[in-house]
From TrEMBL:
It comes from the Bacteria. Belongs to the UPF0145 family. This is UPF0145 protein ACFYXQ_17950. It comes from Nocardia jiangxiensis. The lineage of its organism: Bacteria, Bacillati, Actinomycetota, Actinomycetes, Mycobacteriales. Pfam families: YbjQ_1.
Length: 119
């Protein structure tokens, strides 16, 4: 069951992604280098105004939350696509970096692409 306000890697993904620096039970055969997936998203004017009004009285900005979840999933998808295109089957030390600017919110997923095999 999927929740529109959360996410993560699907169990059947072709590229294993870990926030750890190693993978217990696996051996790193080759390090392919740094990979990243990037997206920049902007909210529409109506949604931004709604969020501004909501922020005055407090509470979760569900539209913003949904946008950030979608952005992280898109960045993660680009990260795993790049890893697979280089011949990798895992990303180690994956991190997200988020920054907000005048034009929108930037989400970057990055890590180290590797080829791993069971130990």
């Amino acid at each position: 069951m999927s929740n529109e306000y959360s996410g993560g890697q699907q169990p059947n993904a072709g590229v294993l992604v870990s926030t750890m620096n190693d993978l217990p039970g696996f051996r790193v055969e080759r390090v392919l280098g740094e990979v990243f997936g990037l997206t920049v998203r902007a909210r529409n004017v109506g949604s931004s105004l709604g969020s501004a009004v909501k922020s005055l009285k407090g509470g979760e900005l569900k539209g913003q939350t949904k946008m950030l979840v979608d952005s992280r999933l898109e960045a993660m998808g680009r990260l795993t696509e790049e890893t697979a295109s280089r011949g990798g089957n895992a990303v180690l030390a994956m991190r997200f970096e988020t920054s907000a600017g005048e034009l929108g919110t930037e989400i970057c997923a990055y890590g180290t692409a590797c080829v791993v095999s069971p130990a």
